[in-house]
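Appendix B, Record 12. Input sequence as logged:
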Amino acid sequence: LRFDEKVRVVVFKSEVKGVFCAGADLKERAKMDDAEVGHFVKRLRNLMDEIAALPVPTIAAIDGHALGGGLELALACDLRVAASSAKMGLIETTRGLLPGAGGTQRLPRCVGIGLAKELIFTGRQIDGQQAFSMGLVNHMVPQNNEGDAAYQRALTLAKEILPQAPFAVKMGKLAINRGMEVDIASGMAIEGMCYAQNIPTRDRQEGMAAFREKRPPQFIGK
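Logged structural output:
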């Protein structure tokens, strides 16, 4: 996905009705020794980092339970859409654990430190409406009979992104992600570097021409 230039948006959905991702298999985990657990969690953390680093926008379509590592997967995505019936939570403390695949870092960046601490300390599960109210998800939709309401809304959101200039979208994502980790002055410098890379693109020229000619732009990603 990272190197396929035809990919413009990635949507994560589950093929299992009622479950987005239920997290780690604790029965499997119980068979591991301490070293194996550490190695497993490190690999999982690296996977989430790879997902977060994808250059194109990513959307998690949460139609069912997203618990533990399942919510960490959704947090690694840029955008999240949840059905009203979805259940979400970093439930690790209820099993004698703590989030180990990015949850302690990505949740507070998403909902704020206070709410993140409350959710992690209590291991509480919340539904789609509660997640939307606290800003954990971008959109909440009523679940449909097919059980894929969040996926359908995620596709609609993806289709809003598709007409936009691909390279500009990628640079926008890069500027936001890098800028959020530094002070605002450094962030401005990062934005400037990303903008400078966008200036010589053919898509920028096409966008200007389309505006002058009062027609929809035809972006090619170059």
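The radius of gyration is 19 Å.
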